[in-house]
Amino acid sequence: MAEPESPETAAEHERILREVDSTDTACLGPTLRSVYDGEEHGRFMEKLDARIRNHDREIEKMCNFHYQGFVDAITEFLKVRAEAQKLKNQVTDTNRKLQMESKKLVGAMEELKQCRLQQRNISATVDKLTQCLPVLEMDSKLREQMKSKRHYPALKTLEHLEHLHLPQVSHYRFCKVMVDNIPKLHEEIKEVSMSDLKDFLESIRKHSDKIGETAMKQAQQQRNLGNVVSQPSKAGGRRFKKDASAGSEPEVKSTSPTSEQDSGILDVEDEEEDEEVPGAQDLVDFSPVYRCLHIYSVLGARDSFESYYRKQRRKQARLVLQPPSNMHETLGGYRKYFNQIVGFFVIEDHVLHTSQGLVDRVYIDELWEMALSKTIAALRTHSSYCSDPNLILDLKNLIVLFADTLQGYGFPVNHLFDLLLEIRDQYSETLLKKWAGAFRNILDSDNYSPIPVANEEQYQKMVGQFPFHDPELEKQPFPKKFPFSEFVPRVYSQIKEFIYACLKFSEDLHLSSTEVDDMIRKSTNLLLTRTLSNCLQNVIKRRNVGLTELVQIIINTTHLEKSCRFLEEFITNITNVLPETVHTTKLYGTTTFKDARHAAEEEIYTNLNQKIDQFLQLADYDWMAVEAGSKASDYLVDLIAFLRSTFAVFTHLPGKVAQTACMSACKHLATSLTQLLLEAEVRQLSLGALQQFNLDVAECEQFARSGPVPGFQGDTLQLAFIDLRQLLDLFLQWDWSTYLADYGQPTCKYLRVNPTTALILLEKMKDTSRKNNVFAQFRKNERDKQKLIDTVAKQLRGLINTHHS
Q1: Which tens digits make up the pLDDT trace of 355-406?
Q2: What whole-number distance in Å separates Cα of residue 257 and Cα of residue 82?
Q3: With left for phi above 0 and alpha for psi between -120 and 50, is residue 546 left, alpha or beta?
Q4: What is the pLDDT of residues 636-666, one digit of tens each?
Q5: Which GO biological process annotations does it have (predicted)?
Q6: Which end of the chain is more exposed for a tag (fewer CB within 10 A), N or C?
Q7: How many Å apart are CA 206 and CA 336, to the nearest integer?
């Protein structure tokens, strides 16, 4: 008998059955597994069968209830099946027709698909080409710019291509090729731009003189414009001042050594002044420099470019500063040298202000300092070779224009003006040499005769050339004569010309009026004390100079000495510096003309003495004559006549000069006669010869008493012969007792007779007595006379010995 079923098992089986009823067949596995996992599956199967039988009975009931409806439905279904077959046939036919028609549509759709694919590919291709086209256009533009040598735009294009366009299409192979080619293009642009820069440097080296010439013309025009506006009236004014003294003196003649053609070389022509002179930027295309600078800056090589540019310009500066060896020969050599230097620094100044740091002020100042030192050294060397004052003056004007031009560009030029002060000394020396020649020509061509004037016009003309005023001469009727000769006004005019020449050099040197005045006075003093003095001395010392010429020289120098104060006034008028100003140099002309006059006076004295000596050489005394003649010797008579005519010419000389000359001549004549009497060649002397000699001395004394030159008091002139007179009286009167007794006393009658001289003359007479009186010596008188001579000679020796001891 079966065991009774527990309530729990029954509940579980019920639950499982409900799940089987309600759950999808696919999900029954877990449920059924739980049945088989238990021990009551037999009971469960029984219950499941019972449940199935229940459901079958319910289905059967349901079918029985709905059977008629089912039959009706089947009947309707059978009817529908026939219609469905017809429909099937229609659908099949329609499908067949549709399949036939759809084949064409499928072909068209396939074609459409291909077209759409191509359209998509074309669109993608267009998009890609649109991205690549700017790159290709930029590349084409780059090649065109490179071909046309527009390298800076090419570099800009390359920069845009590299940084903007290529990164967008960098995955394409041709872009990689272009990227790899960019460094090569950079180098090519650098090389080409550097080549352009080298051409530019070579071009400005060749044309720097033209640029400098243009800049100096501009400076000259500014100076001319400044002169018109300012109208300077003082010499030595500030920058751009003209010659203030031109035309101020009507006495300036074309005979001046500087009037031939001096400083007009630098004047700009009138038609050129009306034209606008182009600037450096108009003459030079600086674009290669700017392009190269920008190119190297973009490429990151600006420092190397600056270094290269400065190095090359330094080399060019050294070449420019190297003067040609023959520069000193012509002004054109100096002008070209200056033009090149000015052109060089005008270019550098323009680059400084337009290139944004390619060169800086320190670099420019360094270059200028080097250039200034080399220029000054070259000018100092080459100017020293110049001996033409006109060329030196033109060089000075050129240096001033050179300095003013560069000063206008901001370069310091004080050292150039210091150099001009050195050149001024050389200019003064060359002027002195040139004026020495002028003075020599004047002195050599002068006739040393007073200047005759036939009418009032000639008189006023001469007075206009030389400051001379003599009321007595003005009262005299025409024709009349000036006391001086032609060389006085000519020398005076030349001195004024020299002053003008000195003034010309002082213009535009930035000197004060006092400095100009001091310079002119010092140079004029050198002209007077050295040049003119030497010329006068040479004329005075010439062998063939005559007494008449010497007399005229004394008269001329006297008038020139008086004219010195007018030269002082002349300098004061052209410099506007009063002589009372402190440290004003005085003219030494008075001393110069005094020295020349004294030299002429001494030469007159020497010349007179030489003439006297020449006459004395004609003396032919018979020293053994028994008795004297009846008159003075012929040579002495001629000598006295010469002296009278000579002293008659001395009427225009100052009184003391004529008196001194006359006294000097008489003293020299007395001394020469004494030496003639005592010379060693005269071994014997007779009393007759001594008496003849006494007649000649008496003739000289008569000449002295006649007063050949006025102004001597009493017998002053005769005192020149007093020594010779006392000596002759002593021997002719044979007054030895008085001489020996009174010797050494102030009241001695023969005070001027020297015992040595007396002894020499006595020995000559003693020898004569012995020779001519060989047999007479046995006579008593002759023996007594000989003894007396021996005694006197012995006493004279005693006096001499006593005097020496």
Answers
A1: 777 888 888 888 899 988 888 888 888 888 888 888 888 888 888 888 888 8
A2: 156
A3: beta
A4: 889 889 888 888 777 667 657 778 888 888 8
A5: Golgi to plasma membrane transport; intracellular protein transport; vesicle tethering involved in exocytosis
A6: N
A7: 12
Question: What is the rounded distance in angstroms from the CA atom of residue 486 to the CA atom of residue 438?
Answer: 14
Across-strand partners of 453? Answer: 480
Q: What share of the chain is helix, strand, coil (3-state, %, to 5)?
A: 75, 0, 25
Angle at 138 between CA 164 and CA 303, to 5 degrees: 65
What is the rounded CA–CA span in Å between residue 303 and residue 296? 8
Tokens for 765, please give them: 């007479």
Cα–Cα nearest to 442, from 488, 390, 388, 496: 488
Is the link from the previous residue into 479 a cis peptide, with omega within 30 of 0?
yes
CA distance 486 to 445: 9
Query: How far apart are alpha carbons 472 and 189 in whole angstroms?
Result: 97
User: What would the two tokens of residue 632 be?
Assistant: 């003075």
Rounded-to-integer distance, Cα 171 and Cα 167, Å: 9
CA distance 443 to 552: 12
Residue 143 has a CB neighbour count (10 Å cut-off) of 13
Q: How confident is the model at residue 242 (pLDDT cuts 50, 70, 90)?
A: very low
Which pLDDT value is given to residue 441?
A: 92
Query: Which tokens hold the place of 350?
Result: 């323009």
Q: Which long-range contacts (CB under 8 A, 24 or more apart) does 624-631 make?
A: 624/684, 624/686, 624/689, 624/768, 625/686, 625/688, 625/689, 625/692, 626/686, 626/688, 627/688, 627/691, 628/688, 628/689, 628/691, 628/692, 628/694, 628/695, 629/692, 629/695, 631/695
Residues linked to residue 452 through DSSP beta bridges, in sequence order: 481
Instruction: Please give the Cα distance from 772 to 689 (Å, whole number).
Output: 14
Q: How far is CA 797 from CA 717, 727, 750, 755, in A?
A: 33, 17, 17, 8
Instruction: Check pLDDT > 90 for residue 115.
Output: yes
Assign 481 to helix, strand or coil.
Answer: strand
Q: Does the pLDDT value for residue 236 go beyond 60?
A: no
How far is it, in rounded angstroms, from Cα 419 to Cα 382? 13
pLDDT tens for 151-200 read 677 777 767 666 666 666 666 676 776 666 667 776 777 777 777 778 88
Q: Which two tokens stand for residue 729?
A: 């009286």
The answer to whether the beta carbons of residues 519 and 509 sit under 8 Å apart is no
Q: Which residue has the higher pLDDT, 738 or 129?
A: 738
Mean pLDDT of 452-466: 89
**C-beta of residue 262 within 8 angstroms of C-beta of residue 397:** no
The overall average pLDDT reported for the chain is 79
For the segment 255-289, what is each residue's pLDDT rounded down to a tens digit?
344 433 333 333 333 334 445 556 656 777 887 88
Enter the tokens of residue 715. 């017998």
